[in-house]
């Protein structure tokens, strides 16, 4: 069964398109800080077209064009990138969390950020107010955290977390800090929420779940965890070449989904893998279409004369 919705979210599509448009408009090289999105296939495809991925903005020659990835960057990165022509492909929903961090810091709050240490999105958010933000990853962290201002606390979250795990962490924070303030709108993005809920909805109908996504994709890993937490075997695969046929022994029904940074072409390749092995019945889960869309980065609109 093909799970729906799956694959590209609006923020990923916008970021990938930003690099593609830049390559078409100005030609290579177009530099990209880190991976534009966390998918190896997408990165390799853009590299073949002339994109150059770098670990640091300081590797980019002065005057060159540099794209910031969908995960966002800190003010310090923006400062170090001066002298380059930057295109900000930060997902607008990540940018919202950055704005919340600045808002609470300006009001003197201690900010508890729920997220994964080392993730680029977390690093960027923490960089907005490093003296105000403390990171928690688990319920145990939430039990121990000591914000500098325990009487004036707010929490924010990474956009690609487990709904269930985050709810458990927030429950602890609310118990320990009864006046804690929450984001006006949920920080976990619509695509992460929709994909986890869609997986939960089919777990009673499948014996195995395959999640298409790269190992460093946070939202893809969370889909695997959703299934395993309910005792359904689940595996993260970059593409069909990573399917182990021994997983299918005794399995009558397989669910297939894709993380928010995995293109639909990879789903088609996995489906073809099953068809070549005689699987004819492939159903698709019913789901409302996702209608969220974002305008292209302002730097691209300006260069095309569109405001």
Number of distinct helices: 11
CATH topology of the largest domain: Rossmann fold
**What order do the helices and strands follow?**
HEHEEHEHEHEHEHHEHEEHH
CATH class of the largest domain: Alpha Beta
Q: Look at the helices and sheets and give the structural class.
A: alpha/beta
Determine Rg (CA atoms, Å): 20 Å
What's the architecture of the largest domain, going by CATH? Answer: 3-Layer(aba) Sandwich
Task: Tell me the fraction of residues in β-strands, as a range.
Answer: 5-15%
How is the main sheet built?
4 strands, parallel
User: Termini, distance in Å?
Assistant: 43 Å
Strand order of the largest sheet: 2-1-3-4
Number of domains: 3
Average pLDDT over all residues: 97
Range of helix content: 25-40%
List low-pLDDT spans. none
Tell how many strands the DSSP assignment holds. 10
Shape: flat
Q: How would you portray this structure in words?
A:
With 307 residues, the protein is of the alpha/beta class. The protein folds into 3 domains: 10-91 and 294-303, 3-Layer(aba) Sandwich (Rossmann fold); 93-176, 4-hydroxy-3-methylbut-2-enyl diphosphate reductase, catalytic domain (Cobalt-precorrin-4 Transmethylase, domain 1, 3-Layer(aba) Sandwich); 190-276, 4-hydroxy-3-methylbut-2-enyl diphosphate reductase, catalytic domain (Cobalt-precorrin-4 Transmethylase, domain 1), CATH 3.40.1010. The protein is 38% helix and 14% strand. It is built from 11 helices and 10 strands. The protein has helices at residues 10-26, 40-48, 75-80, 92-106, 120-126, 139-144, 163-176, 190-202, 218-228, 264-276, 298-303; strands spanning 30-33, 51-54, 65-68, 85-88, 110-114, 133-136, 153-157, 208-212, 234-237, 254-258.
